[in-house]
Specification:
Blueprint lengths: L2 H15 L2 H7 L4 E6 L2 E5 L3 H10 L1 H12 L1 E2 L1 E5 L21 E2 L24 H12 L8 E4 L6 H15 L4 E5 H12 L6 H13 L3 E5 L8 H16 L3 E6 L11 H7 L3 E4 L5 H12 L10 H10 L4 H18 L6 H7 L14 H12 L3 H5 L5 H17 L4 H7 L5 H14 L4 H13 L1
Parallel strand pairs: 2-4, 6-9, 6-10, 7-8, 8-9
Antiparallel strand pairs: 1-2, 3-5
Helix pairs in contact: 1-4, 5-6, 7-8, 7-9, 11-12, 11-13, 15-17, 17-19, 18-19
């Protein structure tokens, strides 16, 4: 197929997508001049065409042209007068297209099983999930860079792979996922100057990391031990960001806690959006367990108390939950003919029980026990009544929730009738202060904690 035939094929397809007036104005007099490696040079009649096509039709051009050729190209728009004298203005035969091949999850270093569809969403990760979806749907335009942070095992890597897989599935953009360790190792290999190919290696390194549309880099905190690696990532970041290419970063700590990184990197990480993922609350842990065991035979026969028990004694991260589930099912298979019961779960996980998580120490349980103790309705506890016989038990319940669960003040406010977090903080501080001098309150708190 020669360049004229290829471009005519493209023009026929773009004509179907835009109005006749737009086609005649912006595309009718264009021509594919040359394909060189991963670069496609398009001749346009006026300078105005260069700017307008670049700013308004770039995505459409890439999508259609790349779907025809099966490869990805970078496009340059030139006036005929700008063409290099070294170019031969003759018909070219396009046989071996030199663009970047269509990607798969494997070539992008992505795990295809990590998708948005199988990511379990709860209050602890909803903001990060929503931000990730926005970036996946409009890479380079929404939240750039996106910085995800949280402890290991909470779903950061799953979200990053989900973004990459979504982009590959729904566009022709080139995606690359790496760890910061891999980035540094690649850089070290490129700059070793003990052979005659060192310059080629540096060019190859830059092409790998800068000639892409989406860079996803995990565990950025480990970049702190590599000074030269930080410098190279700084330049890579700048080039990608200046070209409106999407950058997604993950860390086990917040941006401001990355003390080992240079200030100029910290500043750039704060340019976009940061999203924290916290440990899953009880309800999310239950939902995760249900999802994880759904493929098991007779999953519907597993008692809810087993699921809740596993959720209660594994409250730090998803990987811990997965390990507990595997252990319970293995133990049931070996010791109880495959039948999962609460007794089996207790026996299988007995070495994982901590002092604070033997029972369901969540907000709902604490509220119920406080209401039973003070003989009030739980609706009143959550409601607007401010009489002393209701308000003081409410403050005690808030205090106990604060010291016996991992819930944040804003989240606790949602459990107590949608109260503002400042109200929750005030209630907690009042009880904390009264406990220092009120021996009767000390006795009440001790009794309630023993019941919980």
């Amino acid at each position: 197929m020669n360049t004229d035939m290829l471009w005519n094929n493209f023009l026929n397809k773009i004509k179907e997508r835009i109005s006749p007036l737009s086609y005649d104005t912006w595309f009718k007099d264009t021509k594919l001049y040359k394909i060189e490696k991963n670069l496609a040079i398009i001749i346009v009649p006026m300078i105005l065409h260069k700017k307008h096509l670049e700013e308004n039709y770039k995505d459409d051009i890439e999508e259609i042209f790349n779907s025809i050729t099966g490869t990805n190209f970078i496009f340059q728009f030139k006036l005929e007068s700008e063409l290099s004298d070294s170019y031969e203005k003759s018909e070219q035969i396009v046989n071996d297209l030199g663009g970047v091949p269509y990607q798969s999850s494997v070539s992008a270093n992505l795990k295809s099983e990590y998708t948005f569809d199988n990511f379990i969403v709860g209050d602890s990760n909803r903001f990060a999930f929503t931000a990730a979806r926005a970036v996946a749907e409009k890479p380079g335009k929404a939240y750039n860079p996106l910085f995800l942070y949280g402890k290991s095992g909470l779903g950061k890597t799953h979200l990053m792979h989900s973004i990459g897989n979504y982009i590959i599935e729904n566009s022709n953009k080139k995606v690359l996922y790496v760890s910061s360790e891999q980035f540094v190792n690649d850089y070290i290999m490129a700059v070793r100057n003990n052979d005659k190919n060192s310059f080629e290696k540096i060019d190859s390194f830059k092409n790998k990391y800068r000639n892409i549309d989406v860079l996803i880099i995990d565990d950025i905190q480990f970049l702190g031990t590599a000074t030269k690696g930080q410098e190279e990532f700084f330049h890579t970041f700048n080039q990608l960001h200046d070209s409106n290419k999407q950058i997604i970063i993950a860390s086990d700590r917040s941006v401001d806690d990355l003390k080992m990184l240079e200030d100029r990197l910290i500043t750039r990480f704060n340019w976009g959006l940061t999203a924290n993922i916290t440990p899953p609350d009880f309800n999310l842990r239950v939902n995760i367990i249900k999802k994880k065991i759904s493929h098991q035979e007779a999953a519907e026969d597993i008692p809810i108390e087993v699921i809740e028990y596993i959720a209660n004694i594994n409250d730090s991260d998803v990987r811990q939950l997965e390990g507990a589930i595997t252990r319970v099912f293995a133990y049931a298979l070996m010791m109880n003919k495959g039948k999962v019961t609460l007794d089996v779960a207790v026996e299988a996980l007995k070495d994982r029980i901590s002092d604070r998580s033997v029972y369901k120490n969540d907000v709902h349980r604490i509220q119920r026990i406080v209401c039973e103790y003070f003989k009030i309705d739980i609706e009143d506890l959550k409601g607007k009544k401010r009489s002393k016989d209701i308000n003081y038990p409410r403050q005690i319940a808030i205090y106990l929730c604060r010291i016996m669960t991992n819930e944040s003040f804003p989240k606790m406010g949602t459990y107590f009738g949608g109260r503002d977090h400042s109200t929750i903080i005030s209630a907690y501080q009042k009880i904390e202060k009264d406990l220092k001098t009120n021996s009767q309150l000390q006795t009440v708190i001790k009794e309630l904690k023993s019941r919980i």
